[in-house]
Amino acid sequence: FHAGLVPARAPEPLHTLLDRRSMMRMASLVARKRHAHALVTGENLGQVASQTLENLACIEAAAFLPVLRPVLTFDKQDTIALGRRIGTYKLSILPAPDSCTVWLPRAPALRARVADALAAEEGLPFAELEDQALHRITSRRIPT
Fold it and tell me: How far is the C-alpha of 64 from the C-alpha of 53, rounded, in Å?
């Protein structure tokens, strides 16, 4: 839903981080509505540019709930093995574009600061776009 917004008006190195911060805000709102007490992600420390300690902190600062990362220190093979064991692996390999590939900057920020992200978000209509996206959310149970 950010088509054209982030690339056109924000510093390119922050594109993926700004998109992920937006997802954290929306996930927090959905989680609150469903009476959840935390968000859970499948991030691995250092696996991609957005997953440095500094970038994870910058992204997490946009969440309204605690963010739990149970596989943070797993290597890729451990994560795959866990996915197979709990029945989520087949879902995880389905082809789907994500913000990391769609908005991939040529030189992504590796040590973003929250202040830089907030400055980049200023004046951009994230709140309106997030509200529109939240009103179009549909849910479905995926059998595992």
Answer: 19
CA distance 81 to 96: 21
Q: HEC profile for 42-108? A: CCCCCCCHHHCHHHHHHHHCCCCCCEECCCCCCCHHHHHHHHHHHCCHHHHCCCCCCHHHHCCCCCC
pLDDT band (50, 70, 90) for residue 46: confident
* Residue 40: strand, helix, or coil: strand
Q: With beta carbons less than 8 A apart as the criterion, state whether 103 and 19 touch.
A: yes
Token pair in block for residue 16: 């993926």
Side chain identity at 29, as an amino acid letter? Answer: L
d(CA 96, CA 93): 9
pLDDT in tens, 99-143: 556 667 889 899 999 999 999 999 888 888 888 888 888 887 766
Q: What is the largest CA-CA distance in the chain?
A: 45
Helix axes 53-60, 114-121, angle to 10 degrees: 50
Place of tokens 């179009």: 136
